[in-house]
């Protein structure tokens, strides 16, 4: 039994109209003892086995990467959340995130990629949708790393528009094979994989999944891509020329390919966020150590206020990303814990439960990848000219990180998903936005908002106002554009960012409240919560104004504007973020690592 | 084959080491603890012997306050079968003779065939407990084993001597042997091992029931070594400068 079971079941997106930090959220501080032990084990493993091999892996050393992959298999890391009967460990999604994050800490995003394709998109389709026979044939060997897995969705002309793939599958006359024709592009683990999950259109229009063995007649793996980063992971095109795939290798049902593709992505998204957060922690630690060592003007650059600001910004951002990721995974696990494990449809239902939190998974992906992007950039900046050389690890980290905003759905696509799903939930009245908005006048009429007194009284009150402002903006956008909101992409992106800041601020405040004790770490958690809330609400204010000017075509009605101004004034905190960042940075330097 | 592995929890090499005001020990509330690294090799050697024999039992034995349960669990997660925890409350014991006496009273009735220890602990570095315990129990003892070879009622071990010399010795069992680091590659606990560890028995025995005799040794003062910079300008002709440099490298720095 995990702690998540004590959480109330909440469906995705509900946090927008629920009071901030009124329920327990899952976070690192609520890890069970098993979670902590597994976290310690994987950190030990990557420190000993991955970190010393980073450069060799980067030379695309197949033997080494596959040897390390088998080592992760021996430890049970590949099959962390795969059923025990197929060689997995059947542990929870939190553990699988801990594993992804741990891999992210290994300093080799290339190996992390090889590993995550194996444990994630490469095998998840079979776990979720495979027949018992398919599971029996493929999963045990995939879980040990004896066989390598890949996942082939993207095509030369179908990237973000994933369902528009042109690869076709036609049932052969004798009914024994599907004949596949077409090309796949940017397939991770391409030249190393034995088993490929391939998406193709049956009869030209029924999007469907197939398990393709490497030695399939008519199937070829193309040459390695020359990439900007991730040079130690294999990425190739695939070519199908009348490839004969046995009918028994159809995955799930004809026409159900979208379920396979998108469920793999939902899981992939939060796991990617975990890997990004792991990488961010390492980048931040490099920055902290270097700032303490590097001397200029007769003192370590860690003494300079500008550097302190950067260190604090990174720490706040990483803490925030970590808080919202584990809150999300806690929600997903909670939904899964409510399923009946003996149900033959258990894994399909698990996929549906995960999809309930597609909004949060996409937010985690966007926020996590933009966190690692910010951290590698600022950590490199702190290294100055040395950061630009290959003598230090940041140059490679910078190149390796760039893909994270592109794959598992570009961040642009993921922002559309956030706003799109929020829209769907409001239109289906899963989120009763209109009722919530009815309370805004009363809310504004109350002098001191009705929130129990605690450490974060002003922060919580400010986030309450931000939720109302965001809801008003969102409601107006839906009134103005209806379903067409999805075509207003800039507006949708701004809304997605507003939602993400609010969700994350709530996550950070909840986590900081839950980790209150007398030690320095919890004091600094409070400092982080105060900084993040103050700064993110400034962003929400500015984004809301941008949205409203678009929705009302530069003329916001007076009575509406009145409310906006009142809410905005309640969102403005008088937090001295500069002084808080100084103390946070000093704390980071005293610890000489990422201590949260 | 019944093998005990004595395991100690020590401050990690990356931990802060704040010294208590009375200068008798470090402030444990701020220290992060790990399994004594040399003990990893002892556990691995015991597990390898058991696996090779295809039967037997590996028992983790540790002394310390409640916090050492974490280290004990790590040993169980790696594959040991059960554990014995001599639980201290309050002051922790640092005198190897007292520690060995306590262990000997508890372990006597277990009748282990082998007792393995790491070569020394990373905190006090005494390296005595295994040998003392062996003597008290009437076992044969050896230190610094670099290789083991279990035979029917004896064990051959390759011992590390000085100046690159080795020695094979044959010991009748039961035996207590300290294991040199680096002789094997310690495994990581697997996910299955971690999940399974909590179902394994940890027998807790209050050490106060087994304190024997008075302490022979106590820690007077704990302090951080003072470092100082010394610069020696070497003057003279090339030959005498070279001679002096070689002398420094040999005698002061001991790198030649």
Gist of the model:
Chain A is α+β, with helices and mostly antiparallel strands and 596 residues long.
Written overview of the protein:
The complex is a heterodimer of chains A (596) and B (256). By secondary structure, chain A is of the alpha+beta class. Chain A folds into 4 domains: 4-148, Acyl-CoA dehydrogenase/oxidase, N-terminal domain (Butyryl-Coa Dehydrogenase, subunit A, domain 1); 150-251, Butyryl-CoA Dehydrogenase, subunit A, domain 2 (Beta Barrel), CATH 2.40.110.10; 257-405, Up-down Bundle (Butyryl-CoA Dehydrogenase, subunit A, domain 3); 411-576, Butyryl-CoA Dehydrogenase, subunit A, domain 3 (Up-down Bundle). Helix content of chain A is 57%, strand content 10%. Chain A contains 21 helices and 10 strands. In chain A, strands 1, 2, 3, 4, 5, 6, 7 and 8 form an 8-stranded mixed beta sheet that branches. Chain A has a two-stranded antiparallel sheet with strand order 9-10. In chain A, helix 11 (358-382) runs antiparallel to helix 14 and helix 14 (411-427) packs across helix 18. Chain A is globular. Chain A starts with 32 loop residues before the first helix and ends in a 5-residue tail after the last helix. Chain B has helices spanning 37-53, 69-78, 96-107, 129-137, 191-197, 238-252, and strands at 2-6, 9-11, 33-35, 57-64, 82-87, 114-118, 140-150, 154-160, 166-172, 175-179, 202-206. Chain B has a 9-stranded mixed beta sheet with strand order 9-8-7-10-6-1-4-5-11, sandwiched between helices. In chain B, strands 2-3 form a two-stranded antiparallel ribbon. In chain B, helix 2 (69-78) links the parallel strand 4 and strand 5. The interface between A and B is medium-sized, with 15 and 12 residues.
């Amino acid at each position: 039994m995990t702690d998540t079971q004590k959480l109330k079941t909440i469906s995705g997106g509900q946090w927008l109209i629920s009071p901030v930090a009124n329920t327990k959220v899952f976070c690192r501080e609520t890890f069970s003892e098993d979670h902590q032990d597994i976290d310690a084990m994987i950190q030990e493993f990557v420190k000993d086995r991955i970190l010393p091999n980073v450069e060799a892996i980067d030379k695309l050393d197949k033997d080494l990467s596959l040897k390390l992959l088998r080592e992760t298999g021996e430890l049970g890391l590949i099959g962390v959340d795969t059923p025990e009967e197929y060689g997995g460990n059947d542990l929870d999604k939190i553990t699988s995130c801990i594993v992804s994050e741990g891999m992210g800490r290994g300093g080799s995003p290339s190996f992390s990629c090889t590993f995550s394709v194996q444990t994630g998109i490469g095998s998840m389709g079979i776990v979720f949708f495979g027949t018992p026979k398919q599971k029996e044939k493929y999963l045990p060997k995939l879980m040990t790393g004896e066989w390598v897995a890949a996942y082939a969705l993207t095509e030369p002309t179908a990237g973000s528009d994933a369902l528009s793939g042109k690869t076709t599958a036609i049932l052969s006359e004798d009914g024994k094979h599907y004949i596949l024709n077409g090309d796949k592009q940017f397939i991770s683990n391409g030249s190393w994989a034995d088993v490929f999950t391939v998406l193709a259109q049956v009869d030209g229009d029924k999007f469907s999944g197939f398990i393709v063995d490497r030695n399939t007649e008519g199937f070829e793996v193309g040459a390695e891509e020359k990439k900007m980063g991730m040079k130690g992971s294999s990425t190739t095109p695939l070519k199908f020329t009348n490839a004969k795939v046995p009918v028994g290798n159809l995955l799930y049902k004809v026409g159900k390919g979208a379920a396979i593709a998108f469920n793999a992505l939902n899981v992939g998204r939060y796991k990617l966020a975990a890997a990004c957060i792991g990488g961010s922690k390492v980048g931040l630690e490099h920055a902290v150590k270097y700032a303490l060592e590097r001397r200029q003007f007769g003192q370590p650059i860690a003494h300079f206020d500008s550097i302190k600001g950067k260190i604090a910004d990174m720490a706040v951002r990483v803490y925030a990303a970590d808080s919202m990721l584990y809150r999300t995974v806690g929600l997903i696990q909670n939904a899964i814990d409510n399923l009946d494990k003996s149900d033959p449809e258990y894994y399909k239902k698990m996929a549906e439960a995960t999809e309930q939190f597609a909004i949060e998974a996409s937010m985690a992906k966007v926020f996590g990848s933009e966190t690692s992007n910010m951290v590698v950039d600022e950590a490199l900046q702190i290294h100055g000219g040395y950061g630009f050389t290959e003598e230090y690890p940041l140059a490679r980290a910078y190149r390796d990180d760039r893909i994270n905003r592109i794959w598992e759905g570009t961040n642009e696509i993921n922002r559309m998903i956030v706003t799109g799903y929020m829209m769907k939930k409001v239109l289906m009245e899963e989120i009763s936005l209109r009722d919530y908005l009815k309370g805004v006048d009363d809310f504004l009429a109350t002098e001191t908002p009705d929130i129990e007194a605690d450490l974060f009284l002003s922060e919580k009150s400010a986030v309450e106002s931000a939720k109302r402002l965001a809801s008003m903006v969102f409601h107006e956008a839906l009134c103005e554009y209806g379903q067409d909101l999805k075509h207003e992409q800039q507006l949708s992106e701004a809304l997605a960012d507003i939602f993400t800041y609010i969700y994350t601020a709530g996550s950070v405040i909840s986590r900081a409240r839950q980790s209150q004790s007398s030690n320095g770490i919890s004091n600094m958690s409070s400092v982080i919560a105060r900084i993040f809330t103050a700064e993110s609400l400034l962003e929400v204010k500015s984004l809301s104004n941008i949205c409203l000017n678009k929705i009302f075509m530069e003329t916001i009605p007076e009575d509406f504007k009145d409310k906006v101004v009142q809410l905005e004034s309640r969102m403005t905190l008088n937090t001295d973020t500069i002084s808080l960042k100084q103390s946070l940075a000093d704390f980071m330097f005293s610890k000489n690592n990422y201590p949260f | 084959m019944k093998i005990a592995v004595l395991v100690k929890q020590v401050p990690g090499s990356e931990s802060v080491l704040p010294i208590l005001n009375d200068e008798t020990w470090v402030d444990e509330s701020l220290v992060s603890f790990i399994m004594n690294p040399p003990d990893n090799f002892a556990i691995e050697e015991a597990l390898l012997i058991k696996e090779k024999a295809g039967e037997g039992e590996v028992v983790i034995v540790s002394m310390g306050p409640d916090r050492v349960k974490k280290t004990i669990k790590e040993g169980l997660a790696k594959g040991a079968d059960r554990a014995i925890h001599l639980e201290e409350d309050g002051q922790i014991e640092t005198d190897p003779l007292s520690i060995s006496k306590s262990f000997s009273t508890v372990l006597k009735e277990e009748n282990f065939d082998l007792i393995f220890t790491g070569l020394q602990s990373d905190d006090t570095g005494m390296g005595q407990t295994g040998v003392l315990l062996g003597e008290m129990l009437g076992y044969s003892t050896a230190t610094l084993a670099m290789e083991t070879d279990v035979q029917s009622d004896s064990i051959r071990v390759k011992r590390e001597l000085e100046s690159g010399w080795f020695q094979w010795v044959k010991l009748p069992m039961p035996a207590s042997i300290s294991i040199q680091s680096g002789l094997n590659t310690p495994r990581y606990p697997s996910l299955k091992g971690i999940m399974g560890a909590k179902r394994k028995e940890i027998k807790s025995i209050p050490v106060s029931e087994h304190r024997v005799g008075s302490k022979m040794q106590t820690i007077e003062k704990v302090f951080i070594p003072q470092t100082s910079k010394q610069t020696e300008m070497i003057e003279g002709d090339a030959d005498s400068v070279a001679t002096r440099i070689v002398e420094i490298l040999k005698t002061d720095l001991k790198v030649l």
